[in-house]
Amino acid sequence: MNAREAIAVVGTRSASEHGLAMAEELGRALAEAGWPVLSGLAEGIDAAAHRGCLARNGAPIAVLGTPLDRVYPTHHRSLQQQVGEQGLLLSTTRSGCRVHPGHFAARNRWLVTFAKALVLVECPQRSGALISAGWASRMDCPLWVVPGDARRWSCRGSNALLRDRATALIHPEDLLRCLGDGPLRSKDSRLMSRKLLGAIGTGASLDQLVHRLQCSHAELAPQLLALECQGELLCESGLHWLKRRP
Predict the structure, then answer these.
(1) Which DSSP category does 201 fall into?
(2) What is the strand order of the sheet 60-64 is part of?
(3) pLDDT tens digits for 129-179?
(4) How many CA atoms lie within 13 A of 21 on its CB side?
(5) How far is CA 16 from CA 130, 144, 160, 206, 229, in A?
(6) Residue 151 CB: number of other CB atoms within 10 A?
(7) What is the DSSP letter of 143?
């Protein structure tokens, strides 16, 4: 099984109408194809991708730069709650910890760690999304970039990547033709799901499951998310997983 079974969609907080529309369309298309949609739940492109995913009853995964008990930006409280209920919220920062810029840089790295492919919709020349693009290059994660208005400042960073290693993404179908169906439609995922349910027993943390099944966090995350969305599992504080009672 491929350890990377989600698609990351990232970009600027100050996106154009075209960028926001494209991110939302990507979120919808990926959800319909059975792909979990990864993003950072930030303003702009991130939020639009997750809204599109939610609209199609997909599986959104948000990797936060803040503790799980903190909402940033604050007006995303409802969106973060929806993602948590329908998908999965992840953070490497403990509750009560003071947030600093390094947490967001780490968030960008984790997004790529979990991703089978990274789609950069729109970003300026100085952007956290470019950090994710750099990690994608180092981790051999395919990078797709949506071409933007050459005259708009918020597209200069993403457009520049098209001169280098990135593949231009004109329409979501271009990406889906390369990816095929996602893990939420995969037959192989059913076998892993049965093993995972057996390993959970009366309850287990993510680290315990990694040890019991001898696999990586990245392999387990999409399966845990899928089982939670199907109503099979319940995720408690501290990434502790339980089987839902009938």
Answers:
(1) T
(2) 88-91, 60-64, 37-39, 7-10, 117-120, 143-145, 167-168
(3) 999 999 999 999 999 999 999 999 999 999 999 988 799 999 999 999 999
(4) 6
(5) 17, 18, 17, 38, 32
(6) 7
(7) E
